[in-house]
Amino acid sequence: MPRDIITPEDEQKITEAIREAELKTSGEIRVHVESNCDKDVLDRATEVFAELNMHQTELRNGVLFYVSLEDRQFAVLGDAGINATVPDHFWEDITAEVVKHFKHKKYAEGLAKGVRMAGEQLQSHFPYDRHGDTNELSDDVSFGE
Length: 145
Hints:
about 45% helix
């Protein structure tokens, strides 16, 4: 079970990273963790993206960090508004950093680092507007089976 590996302290660390990142950008970041992925990881991440209603942000600037722990699968997926503006290596750089931590079973540290990297990069394309920005999606980590 994912909650056996991601402790409440880990969950807090990841949530804090999301909140910190979203103070720099109007982008919306979610982290979803589950045990198994029985299909292509990007296909599953796309399903979770839809299940979490991440495509319904006003600027189409949602980012999903998807983790399947037992299968050792990871994907980071951005909505149309983000993919149209970020540099080509954006997702690859974040993925490399997260996976580096995962290899040492430091899941929370890897996810927190990746989330912060996404926030820093998104800041230039989707700056935070403290007067008009609302938190459109939950900052909590979501869990699947």
